[in-house]
Amino acid sequence: MSLTVESISAAEHLAFVQKQRSVSFLQTPAWGRVKTEWRSESLGWYDGPRLVGAGLVLHRPVPRLGRFTLAYLPQGPALDWTGELDLWLDPLTAYLKAHRAFAIRLGPPVRTNTWSAVQVKVGIADPGVKRLPELPSEQVDPVGARVAGRLRDAGWLPPRPEDGFGAGQPQYTYEIPLAGRTEDDLLGGMNQLWRRNIKKAAREGVEVTVGEDLKAFHDLYVHTAERDRFTPRPLHYFETMFAAMSAEDPERIRLYLARHQGDLVAATILVRVGAHAWYSYGASSTEKREVRGSNACQWAMIRDSLAAGCDVYDLRGITSTLDTDDSHVGLIQFKVGTGGQAVRYVGEWDLPLRPMVYRAFDLYIRWRGHMRRRGR
Predict the structure, then answer these.
(1) Residue 375 predicted with pLDDT over 60
(2) Residues in CB range of 349: below 8 A, 6 or more apart
(3) Which domains does the chain have, with CATH numbers?
(4) What is the average per-residue pLDDT within 105-129?
C-alpha cells in the first residue's frame, strides 16, 4: 500500500468522521472553527482514489517568525494505528514540511494502560505509591507500546508533561465504559457517596434540563473560576464553540442546567462524536452545594450517553498522581467515585522538522511556563 496526503475540504473530512465509531471532537472540522487563534486545515490520507484517514491540523505561528508554524494534530489523526506507521506518517511529514511547519505534534488516540477504580483507590490509600505507573495496570495494550516504540525509532520526541514544551492534551484520562451496560450497572459501579448524592439531588427536587442559556452557564462558570482560582474563558468562546459544533451536527454538543427551586446550581457541557461522549466543562454554585446539582448533571449526561449508544463516557484529564499531599489528587478522587477506569494514552509526540526553530520555540515555551509559575 502506498499512501498520499493532501488537503481536503471540511465536507470531505466530516463525511469521513461520520463513518467512524469514534473520533476525538478535537479532530473534527468544527474544532478548527472554534480555535480561531490558529489556522486550521483538514488533511486526508489516500490509498489511490480512496480516502482512508483524516486529520485536523492546527497551525500555530512562531513568535517573530511568522513564516514557520507548529503543526498540531490534537488527539489525532484518525488513521489505522495498528498498521505500518511509516506508511502513514512519512507522507504527513513530507506534506507539512513542504508547507513550512517547523515541527509536528500529534497525539495518537491509542491506549497503553488502564487501571480499575479499585486499583486507583488502593493506590491512593498506600503511602508507598505516588503515581499511577507504580501500580500494576489491569490492562496493557500492545498496540500502544508498539506505536510508542515506532515513534521513538523514527525520531519523534516523547511526551514531557511536567516541563518544557509540555503536553497540550492530558496523557491520562478517566473514562466510564458504557458498552453492554445498563443504568443499574452504572449506578452499581459507583461508590456509595456518588449514589447517595445522585439520590439526594432527586429528593431535593433538583431538575436537570438541556438548554441554550449560555449566559447563565457562563455567569456560573466565572463564579466557579473565582472560587477555584483558574482563569475562565470568555463568553464568546463558548458561543463560537456551540455555533460551530451545532452547525456540524445538532447532536454534537449540549448544555445541561441543574436548577433547584428556580436557582441555577450547576451546569455542564457534553460533547459527542459517534460512540464517544466527553464531559467538557462544568460549573457549580457555592450556595446550595448540599443539593448536589453537579452529581445530578453528571448522571443526566451519563444516562443520555448510554441511551445514545455510546461506548465511552469520558471525564477527560487527570494527572498521574496518587500522592495525598498533592493538590491534584482530589480530581482523581472525585472521578474514581463514578467507577470506571484510569487510562494512559501514548501521549503527544513532537517531530522537529527545523531543529533550530524548534529549539528556539521550546526555550520560549519553557520561559513562559516559568513566568506563569512565578505569577507574572
Answers:
(1) no
(2) 105, 106, 107, 108, 151, 156, 157, 158, 159
(3) 4-107+348-373 (3.40.630.30), 179-310 (3.40.630.30)
(4) 96
